[in-house]
Amino acid sequence: MINDKLISAALDPIFTVYAQNDDVRDFYKEVTADVKEAAQALLDNKQATVPQQAVEMAVKSLGDLTEPLQLISSPAASAAVATTSATVAQSWSDTEVRHIILRADETQVLLVDSADAQSHVHQFQQPKLAASKLQLKQSEDTLYLAAPSPRWFQYLIPFRHPKSVVEIALPAQFAGTLDVDLKSGSLSATDLTNQLRATLTLRSGGITMEHVQFKTLSAQLTSGSFKANHLVCETLSLNAHSGAVHLANVETIFDLSAHSGLVKGNMLAGAGQFDVHSGSLTLNWQRIDGDIAVINHSGTVKLQAPAADSFKFDLQAQSGTVKVTRNATYSLQVQGAALGQVGEAPQYSVTVKNHSGTIRLN
Fold this sequence. Notes:
By secondary structure, the protein is of the alpha/beta class. It contains 5 helices and 14 strands.
């Protein structure tokens, strides 16, 4: 069993340097639960030999928490940036701009709903620095945005750590593309519904989606977190190299790849494939519309299918155990494999191949 004191000893040095507010405390509880689950899975799969090592490995797999902690620990500072007069403020009709390309070094990007039928771009800075002012260029119906990082000596001015927020407001009828490439920072979309086809690349930081409906979404993270709550899109392609992925009330066709970290999904709808190299994968489905395929190199895989569904399953753990808790008919049932079906008329198939670890189908 993982001792809570071990988790506190690992997380407290990370969290205590930030102002403690309700958001930070909630985030601490969430990370604590994730670390405890991941650390226990590492012990169960013998990837860690003692609890302390398991906790250290689990914390490391979360990636860099600096960016999200900076954002949630100082809401007043973020609000101050957003309420200053905009350094850049421009607008276009949906026929003038159908493609938006943003390249930024260190920026907070906000995707919001437009209050009218136009697309709007604002940049807020604190302090206002000409060197990192948002650069705009339009070519036909494509808008190019570039936000360079401040010069290094501007970080050394006391109490004047440069902050930049780029806000992109899109109307409901927008059916174009958005291509965002951030070296570090964060991207969040809130209360936004349109036919956007979004491609997001983030090397360090976090992506958050809250009550969002897009045409398609493709996201790639080198190190950081991806969180989606009430997200609907035709396809979701997500490649997270290192960090945590949290999905809740997401409806899509999934194509998810994660190298290391925690992947957790709840109240999911749709179908798709999941490829996790190392870590814990938990998927609780509200509705399944097609085949589910999971490949995991090492770690625990937990799947929860809707209670009334009928489906085929093919579960294989090369080095580990397989457990099915549903009433099922088996054509093969051994410690490391289970092949069969649940119900009389299968609607889809569930396939899990795990090199090392536990597979549990509920």
